[in-house]
Each structure stands twice: as C-alpha cells, then as structure tokens.
Amino acid sequence: MKRLLYISTARSILHASELDDLLLKAREANSRVGITGLLIVGGRRFLQVLEGADEAIAATYERIRHDPRHFALVKLHDKEVGSRAFGSWAMGFEQVVDG
C-alpha cells in the first residue's frame, strides 16, 4: 500500500459550491478504487494525502496532476506503508480559514 502527500496551488479560490462538488466527485472516485485520504484547503493552497493500492494512487495522482484548476504540484511524501492512517475516510476534509 502506498501513501502519497502533495501540495498544490489553485488558479483561483474555490467557492463553497465548487469545493462541495470537488469533494463529492473525489469521494465517489476514491471509493470505487479503494483510496482513502485527507484534503486540507487554505485559500488557494491544497494539501492532500492519498493512500491505497500503488496502481490506484498512481492513476489518481496523474489525473490530479492534469487538472487545470491547479498548478505547482509538489510531492512531499510517496512511500510504501503497512497500514492506513485515514482508513475510514474516502476523503476527509478540512478548510483552514485565516482569522
């Protein structure tokens, strides 16, 4: 099993309805291929952890990499792991708000 952590920058701040749509689609897609994880959004910055089978993580990351809504993806962690840290979350979510 693989765990991948990356950061990226959105081209523009996503409105609440756009984030809701993104999360709905991510959770559905992740559930289909056995991926779990966490997405943290703060302004235009995204931090995401994905964990699951190597092939599923590679395909999902490639899809994310080609998504035009963001740029400057940087992998921070990409390693084999023995167990899931986010096993019950198809995609956990937290939005960081300044202030």
How would you summarize this macromolecular structure in one to three sentences?
The protein contains 2 helices and 5 strands; from the N terminus they run βαββαββ. It is an alpha+beta fold. β2 (36-42) and β3 (45-52) form a beta hairpin.
Bulk shape: globular
> What amount of the residues lies in strands?
35-45%
Structural class: alpha+beta
> What's the tally of helices?
2
Low-confidence stretches: none
Order of strands across the main sheet: 4-1-3-2-5
Q: Which whole number gives the mean pLDDT?
A: 93
Largest sheet: 5 strands, mixed
What is the rounded Rg? 13 Å
How many beta strands in the DSSP annotation? 5
Q: What string gives the helices and strands in order?
A: EHEEHEE
Head-to-tail CA distance between termini: 38 Å
Overall helicity: 25-40%
Any overview of this molecule?
- By secondary structure, this protein is an alpha+beta fold.
- Helices cover 30% and strands 40% of the residues.
- Strands 4-1-3-2-5 form a five-stranded mixed sheet.
- Strand 2 and strand 3 (45-52) form a beta hairpin.
- It is globular.
- 18% of the residues are buried.
